[in-house]
Queue: 2 jobs
Job 1
Amino acid sequence: ILNVEQSPQSLHVQEGDSTNFTCSFPSSNFYALHWYRWETAKSPEALFVMTLNGDEKKKGRISATLNTKEGYSYLYIKGSQPEDSATYLCAAYYGGATNKLIFGTGTLLAVQP
Amino acid sequence: EAGVTQSPTHLIKTRGQQATLRCSPISGHTSVYWYQQALGLGLQFLLWYDEGEERNRGNFPPRFSGRQFPNYSSELNVNALELEDSALYLCASNADPFNEKLFFGSGTQLSVL
C-alpha cells in the first residue's frame, strides 16, 4: 500500500513567520507531485504540480521543491499571513499498475495575527 | 467559466438506502475523480473516470460504483448505506490525468442515520 505522509500534522505560527512543511512519498513508479490548499468551507485549490527531480515552483510567497530520488517535497511560506491559514495537502501520482493520485492527510496551518 | 459542480450539497439517508451523488466537470475536462473524506481521515481515492470508462478504483467495496456519461458528467452511487459511509464526497476534474492539477467541486456531505 502506497503511503503519502505529511509533517507536521498541524502548525501554529505568528503573522510574519516563515514556515515549511514536508511531504514524503515512495519513489517507485512516481510520476508527479501535487500541492493543494484547502480553506475551511471551500474546495481544495491547486498550488503546484511538479514532475522533475529538482523542480522548484513559486507562487507569490509560497514555493515548493521536489526531490524524486529520495521521495520528498517541501512547501515554504514566506512571511505567513492570517489568510494563509488552511490545510495544505500534497498528493503523489503513480503510474503503472497503481495509476492513481494518492493524497497525504495534510498539514493544518494556523497563522495568528 | 463554471467550475466543477456537485449536487446535492447535503444528503441525509438511513442505513440500507441508496445514495446518488452527481458531478459536472469543467467544460473540456474528460477525467473525473471521486474522493471520500471521512471524519478525521484524509482524502481517500474512490474512482477515476476518463472518456467514459472507469480507469481505476480505490480500496472500497463494490457497493460503491459510478459511471461517466457522454457529456463527461459523472454519478457516484453508494448502495446498502452503512453508518461509516457518512463523509464528505469530493469530485474533481482535469483534462490531462498525468500532468494537470485537479479542479475540485465543493462536495456533497452525506449523512447516514
Job 2
Amino acid sequence: VQMTQSPSYLAASPGESVSISCKASKSISNNLAWYQEKPGKANKLLIHSGSTLQSGTPSRFSGSGSGTDFTLTIRSLESEDFAVYYCQQYNEYPPWTFGGGTKLELK
Amino acid sequence: EVQLVESGGGLVQPGRSLKLSCAASGFTFSNYYMAWVRQAPKKGLEWVATISTSGSRTYYPDSVKGRFTISRDNAKSSLYLQMNSLKSEDTATYYCARHGVTIAAISYWYFDFWGPGTMVTVSS
C-alpha cells in the first residue's frame, strides 16, 4: 500500500491551525498512525487507529478519516509543534509503509 | 519509562558487513515484537525488519531480504540487525522500534516507541 502525504512543506505561525493530508493507494480501514519527528529526539507516536490520541499527545492534535483519505490537524500551533510528520499504514503488511513526510516550518 | 538505545553504526565500505544493536529497558522485552526502521538522508522512513516475540518469525522488505538478518536476545533485552553485502543505498539512520500493540486480543501494528537512531554510512 502506497502512502502519499501532502503538502511536503508547510509554513505556519504559532496560534494558527494546520492540516496535513495522507492518502492510501487502497482502502486501509482506519489502520493509520501519525508520528512526529524532531531533531535529536526519538520519533513520537501521536495518533493511532486514524483518530485515537496516544497517551501524552496534546489535545490540540486530532486525526480523522478512514478508507483512503486521512488528515492530521493541529490547532493553535505551539513552538514545539514545528517538526516533520509521517503517516503509516498497518492494514496490509508486510511491508508496513510510511508516507513521505510533511515538514512543518515556522513562517 | 520505555527506553531504546541503538549502537553499532559507523562508516563501512560497500560489500562489507555491520551489526547494529538495540538495548531495551522499561518494559518486558520478551512480550513485544520489535523492528528496525531506517531513514536515508533527506528521505522518509522505511521499514527494514520485524521479529516476533520468540524470534521464530522474521519479516523483511524486498530491498533488504537475503542481506539483513534481525535477531533478539530476550535474556539481555537486546535487538540486533546483521547487515551484509552493504550498498550505498543502505546509508541511513537506523531506528529500533517497538512494533505492535495488542488490545483485547487484537494486534495493531504501529510503532509505539522509538530509539534515537544510529547512523550507518556505506562508502568507499
